[in-house]
Predict the 3D structure of the following.
Amino acid sequence: MNKVVEKILEAAIIEFAEKGYEAASTNKIKERAKVAKGLLFHYFKNKEKLYIESYKRVLKWSKEKFEEFALKNADEEFFLFLKKWSLNKITLAAQNPVYSRFLLTVTNLPLRLQSTVLDMIKANLLGSTGILYEKIKSVGLREGISHEDALKFIMSVFEGLGNLYLNQYRDKPEELLNNTEKILSDADKFLDMIKFGLLPKKGS
């Protein structure tokens, strides 16, 4: 990827993150990137294609970060791996608030564009889900529960926990980074509830 394209994409990510897709201005993007508007549209035919390529760039960054983490923690058992990744993911989001806000812009896209981006997100998740699925296969589950369903449930829980923290500390990421012990403590509580349920055992 040449340097001009990189400059345009980084400028676009900032503009889309700050204003959302509809309100984002290609004029502002070319000003941020310090390129002529004709050059912007030479590489990206229209605003929609610019957004899609920007989203691909951030998804690629996200996937690379997960793969780096997975390689370093390849020997961790499933639940400890998940706990560590949840903290790592939240920390990455706090350290890269523009990328985090940009990823959330998918919620307010025109329907056709939203459908395209959601398909990209699903394709991007296949790799990380595959790694997690291989790990969860070593976990003994209650009869009648498949590893596929267990993984979907657990990922939904931790996705919700991550979003809770990101919303709570949206405008103060430095505070989030100073509260990692609380995040880990909450992760332990959630893992305990996942493993052992919410209700007391009969007869206890």
